[in-house]
Design a protein that fits this description.
The chain has a domain at about 40-64. It is mainly alpha-helical. Helix content is about 60%, strand content about 0%. Keywords: Membrane, Transmembrane, Transmembrane helix.
Length: about 60
């Protein structure tokens, strides 16, 4: 029973370091893609909304 943990064919066994490197390369592949942010986000909409409100207030004061 003690012989179960001993590899039978050591010459054909793959290098565990190479497997780890391949796994890390696979994991890093998914992270390498840059995440594209939406072209219009909340901050841009807030700035545009504030500008529209400011123009409307200035126009309302100019009419009076």
């Amino acid at each position: 029973m003690a012989d179960q943990n001993v590899p039978q064919n050591v010459e054909n066994e793959q290098d565990p370091g190479a497997s780890t490197q391949m796994f890390r390369a696979f994991v890093n592949e998914g992270q390498a893609e840059p995440k594209s942010e939406p072209k219009i986000n909340g901050r841009v909409l807030a700035i545009v909304g504030a500008a529209v409100i400011l123009i409307a207030v200035v126009a309302a004061i100019a009419v009076l």
